[in-house]
What does this fold into?
Amino acid sequence: MLRENDMGGWTRASPTLYPHQWSWDSAFITIGLAHLDTGRAAGELLTLLEHQWKNGKIPHIVFNPDAPPESYFPGPEHWASATDSPDAPPGPSVTSGLLQPPVHAIAAHHILGVAGARGEGIAGTREFLGEVYPKLLAWHRYLATARDPEGSGLVTIYHPWESGTDNSPRWTPALERVEVGEIPDYERLDLDHIPDPAERPTGYEYDRFIWLVEVIKHARCDDAVLYRTSPFLAKDVLASAILVQANEALLDVAEVVGAPGEDRTMIRAWIERGRRGLDERWDPGLGLCLDYDVRAGESLPARTIAGFAPLIAQAGSENRLKTLLKVLESHAFTGNPDLRRPLPPSTSPDDVGFSPRNYWRGPVWPVMNWLLWWSLEGSRQRKRAARLKGHALAQLSDGRFGEYYEPFTGEALGSDDQSWTAAVALDWLADGEQPLPTL
Ligand code: 2M8
It folds into this structure.
């Protein structure tokens, strides 16, 4: 399946709904590909990084020049004026102006782990790490500065698409506060590629998504301007938690490539600041971490998978970990007896924003199962991790590699043949097993 989605050095997120290269999809795809071919896995990240912006930002989409016309909206033409920014990479505009959660350093580090375990491709991987280290450092520096001028340790986003969990109830109150101005006429091309529009965001949400793109374009993606003008400005705890672990991975990479001591001191400071920031966002009543609407100066109270941010970042005390595990296994998440399998729904069925077939508002996402599994492993919760992996793999045995799954029926929804779903399946299959055959 990944071979079918291979566009010659990079992988489209899915065959028809997402015919381009998405930033965090590519990082997860790298994690799976590493088991088949460490060189190809490295290439996945390198192609993405070819389009890194001058300020360090990794764009959320790199557009595929060969994608059929009218296949995805908003496409490169729509982003052209934004990428006219002085920070955009040189050459014709081929990227969006947004970002996505920073899984990339984790993926780069993972390649080294796989190469080491297999005793193969180690020299090539070290060379690759030498090449990507400064790029990853620039990316993390951008996140720690332009996206966190307050020094809070938390990443600011200007658009729900930047969170990767687009229509999650995480953002509902903040989106409701956005007043939509004049937007160009547009056609929802996404709806052509799925059986039921109820599985995708609503028109109300899309109007806001498109208006925010207009605002960002108008600011020419200038962070200082957006801090002043964007009607949507939020601290994202999931991206911030991923950044903590990405910085841990980068610290190891810094060691491998012999980076200067000052770099390591700086990365350590980012890690500490990130964990402290998450600590501030802890909600003891819900036993979850909450996002923050900077514009409104309010917490965003939805109970979603992002609330497990401290588990992902390994932030907080043993007691906090115990609370998080309890909440994870409670009725609000995997303990709900009506679930087809005890896998965490993207939004808690007990949350008012829950909707079981609607994208990030309830379905189970294999890629999120992977993230929680990996975090449980990292927190030495081996039995829990193994259980989660077993159920998550069983869900994928339908062979459809769905983008997301209805939590009560287990039905595959959204796009089939979603690359990151196949990639996490590969990583699970390789975990503790014999090496997989090479491509
Ligand atoms: C979804 O997002 C795109 C916009 O970026 C869309 O709906 O058109 C999200 O699930 C996002 O997290 C993911 O990276 C992307 C491609 O799989 O699709």
